[in-house]
Write a structure and sequence with these properties.
- The protein is α/β, with parallel strands linked by helices and 293 residues long.
- Strands 2, 3, 4, 7, 8 and 9 form a 6-stranded parallel sheet that branches.
- Helix 6 crosses helix 7.
- The N terminus is likely disordered.
Amino acid sequence: MDPRLERRESQRLGTARRRRNAALGAIVVVAVLAALIMIPVLGSSGAGESNRPVAAKEPAVSPKTTAPASAPKVVGPPPQQITDAVPGEAEVITEGPTAGRKVALTFDDGTCAACVAKILDVLEQTGAPATFFPNGTYGASWEPQAKRIKALVASGQLTLGNHTFSHGVSTQIGSAAFGADLQRNEDWIQKTFKLSGRPWFRPPFGDYDSGTVSAAGERGYRKVIMWSGTVADSDVRSEAYLLNAIQYWAKPGRIILMHANYPPTAEVLPRILKLLERKKLTPVTIAELLKDA
């Protein structure tokens, strides 16, 4: 072959070889980069698992649960222990401070034994605080629950007040008869629950005058507790009615009047507590609501 042709052929073959090598090098580089990219995505998959990239999962979250309302921590001597009455000027109270978004659920009378037991069941199960104003004339409802009530008072979850023994109209029977009936109920409270109802008194029917207030103060009942909201359950009401009343009346600082007289009030109590939670209100005892008042 002509030497010049041989050189040209050699140059052509060399150029083709260099191009092939460059192409192979590029393929290797791409393959390496792809492997580096895919390794973090695939991770160390086990047998039978797909090698396709999988979207990251959110961390598992436990279902939200609502903790029961905790009772106030008791500091110092047991609440409402029996001591000598300290006479003093009584004040009439219809609501408490609005700070803290607290509300006091209060239960009067106790004509329904099953209702008293059910309300106590709910309080024990939920830890919700409340206040009772029982009448000794309905002792058949209260006395079987004495041990439970005493324990709740001791823990600070329950406040116990005096609603008179006979539930008469205080202003119609005269100050002396009223004072005697109030003391009779205090004696019954001490005998039944080994506690004192002082200083908390609620007049039956919300009926009082200066003579009533003065007679209460003389016997150590210096806090005459009225109310600033009511579910109006001195007559039987539907559960829907009771919930609507709570929705309307329950506001920070309010004292809510209720009764342990008819089953719907006891049955709807868990839903009332849920409603207060949705309204961002905290149920407390009268003692807790008024401790800074």
